[in-house]
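anyone seen this seq b4? input:
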Amino acid sequence: MGRYTLTRHIQAPPARVWEAFADAALAKDWMDLRDIRDATGPLDSVGTRFRTIVRGRWGFRCVVLESQPPALHRHEGHGPLGAYYRQTARLVASDGGTDLELETEYVVPLGPIGRMLDRLFLEGGPRTIANRELDRLVEIVSGRSDSPS
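predicted toks r here
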């Protein structure tokens, strides 16, 4: 299992940053997803299930595990071939904005072969993608970018 934590200070109040996790259109935009489908409820409600579509048919069956607006959001996703992730966002008001800590645990598919490939080739990849996505979240919630179309 891989794990990484990314942090950002965002010049926006926690309630605004929270929207990036609770609003499907915003989440789809900053997570660079093709779509979020079949939500059984709001994305900030414990027990809500939804599907994310990453590319083509590749995606994850997700569930919201914990939600304490606007301070904590935790969800997990199960994908094809044993792929898995759990993402925990912690938001704390600080210096007129929000300190965001985003912790991600993940399992690549294909068991031992996938773990070996992760160590050899992919270990930096998820962090690079996650940093780009988190920078997009900052742009959206701090008002430095247009809202998703």
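The chain has a mean pLDDT of 87. The chain has one domain: 2-141. kinda curious what u guys think
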